[in-house]
Amino acid sequence: MDSSSDEIIHQWGSYIRVYKEGRVERFFGTDKVPSSIDSADGVSTKDVLIVPETDVSARIFIPTATIDSGHKLPLLIYFHGGGFRVGSPFCATYHNYVTSLVAAAGVVAVSVDYRLAPEYPIPACYEDSWAALKWVASHSNRKGPEEWIRDYANFDQVFLAGDSGGANISHDLAARAGIENLNGNEVIGTLFSPSIFWD
């Protein structure tokens, strides 16, 4: 066996290890909580594929009582942290965090899964997140393919949020949204937080 296959060129705490031959091991954010309708916490979730070519996807969260009510709620678009290298909206840490936000704030949330470094170097995470934001914005005026966003999101109350690297993405997208067209929609607020998972 070639000894270079075990040579570590980068290790970031207990979260990720990168080997010289290109192999990447992640120790955080690789678990997946299944989406569910009418869960015990009062929040329903579903997963959507946004950009098939790059596998950009998202998990949508909605208070279960809102489904079939016709009631529109503020829209929160969330970008997970993890230093652009780890994390996912589907892992327990971020699934539970966004679920608690949705339950407490009474919002529709779209938590974006963007491509991670080092396999996809920056700016891939920004490009993926911008594509996701534009996809969400395409649902305004009751258009777009995803009924939970189209029918229950109030596009007069759009917020971007994230922690750690996701906060950086949120900031970048808020600035970009102020310059480029988002189907006539505006981001009215951003929420940034430090990482929610560092030990």
TrEMBL record:
<dbReference type="Pfam" id="PF07859">
    <property type="entry name" value="Abhydrolase_3"/>
</dbReference>
<dbReference type="InterPro" id="IPR050466">
    <property type="entry name" value="Carboxylest/Gibb_receptor"/>
</dbReference>
<dbReference type="GO" id="GO:0016787">
    <property type="term" value="F:hydrolase activity"/>
</dbReference>
<protein>
    <submittedName>
        <fullName>ARYLACETAMIDE DEACETYLASE</fullName>
    </submittedName>
</protein>
<feature type="domain" description="Alpha/beta hydrolase fold-3">
    <location>
        <begin position="76"/>
        <end position="182"/>
    </location>
</feature>
<dbReference type="InterPro" id="IPR029058">
    <property type="entry name" value="AB_hydrolase_fold"/>
</dbReference>
<comment type="similarity">
    <text>Belongs to the 'GDXG' lipolytic enzyme family.</text>
</comment>
<dbReference type="InterPro" id="IPR013094">
    <property type="entry name" value="AB_hydrolase_3"/>
</dbReference>
